[in-house]
Amino acid sequence: MSSETFLSEPETWRDVLRKAFRNRSFLTGSIITLIILSMALISFVWTPWSVIELDILLKLKKPSLEHPFGTDHFGRDIFSMVMIGARNSIGVALIAVGIGVIIGVPVGCWAAARGGYSDELLMRGNDVVFAFPALLSAVMITAIFGPGAINAIIAIGIFNIPVFARIARGAALSLWPREFIMAAEVAGKGKMRITVEHILPNMTNLLLVQGTIQFSLGILAEAGLSYVGLGTQPPWPSWGRMLNEAQTMMSFAPHMAIFPGLAIVVTVLGLNLLGDGLRDVLDPRLRRER
Fold first, then answer.
1. Residue 245 and residue 74: Cα distance in Å, rounded?
2. Top CATH class, 6-46+76-286
3. Burial class of 19 by CB neighbour count within 10 A (0 to 12, 13 to 18, 19+)
4. pLDDT at 164 over 60
5. Do residues 74 and 134 make contact, with C-beta atoms less than 8 angstroms apart?
6. Looking at residue 20, what is its pLDDT?
7. Residue 265's pLDDT band (boundaries 50, 70, 90)?
């Protein structure tokens, strides 16, 4: 017996792709996510205007052909700032989710494999970490090391660890009683080898869906941390700090808040739609063990 899933067969890959292209949630989420990612990547090499040069003569200009999203109170182009803000937000969220996966998944798999007091102790420690939201963790980390994107990454990453540990543990516990796992044990394979060769491949789809959801939550967390001054620091823009700077100018320059706010909403919406679509496409009931 093997733990290979249906995804290992070429003809079923075609079935999955066909199902994906028929799923409206997956398509819509993919298109939105690709647009935001493309905008973030392009910002590494080009933006319409500089975001670190100030021009007071252009301050608070309304949206126009020259400045599609208008300008802020320092005369900076908001469209350019939104582009670079996408790069910063996506970078922070992506690395933070990576931290959660790299640490949380092995922890959850190890707890499920060991069981007993080790499992109980580890999960209770997990609960303690989970009790501290990313914002509170960031406040504590900032009090020690100071504000910045790296500290925001650490705070959000720490928050993601128990999430992925719980997901991995639950999935692993549901797989250990399965027949193909028992056959691997009879064949003389150890728990570590079984986890790597059989358990992890069969929870990949679940982790992919959860990773997409945590990615969208990471975007929100980064925006929240930047809003209170604990995230990305000046002169580089951040969607959250842009909202903070715009809150006192809503009455005469609402565009300063509308466009970064829309960027957050559209990005999170796209990622959530993508996650929902992935959940439909990568239906665990389609799996089979041979």
1. 11
2. mainly alpha
3. middle
4. yes
5. no
6. 81
7. very high
Structure tokens given for 19 = 């199902």
Locate 72 and state its tokens.
């802020």
Q: Print burial letters for 110-131: b (CB count within 10 Å at least 16), e (below 16).
A: bbbbeeeeebeebbeebeeebe
* Positive/negative CA dihedral, 271, 272, 275, 276: negative
HEC assignment per residue over 18-52: HHHHHCHHHHHHHHHHHHHHHHHHHCCCCCCCCCC
What's the rounded Cα separation, in Å, for the pair 219 and 232? 12
Query: Which pTM does this prediction carry?
Result: 0.88
DSSP the chain: -----GGGSHHHHHHHHHHHHH-HHHHHHHHHHHHHHHHHHHTTT--SS-SS---GGGTTPPP-SSSTT-B-TTS-BHHHHHHHHHHHHHHHHHHHHHHHHHHHHHHHHHHHHH-HHHHHHHHHHHHHHHTS-HHHHHHHHHHHH-SSHHHHHHHHHHHHHHHHHHHHHHHHHHHTTSHHHHHHHHTT--HHHHIIIIIGGGTHHHHHHHHHHHHHHHHHHHHHHHHTTSSSPTTS--HHHHHHHHTTSTTT-THHHHHHHHHHHHHHHHHHHHHHHHHHHT-GGG----
Beta bridge partners of 71: 77
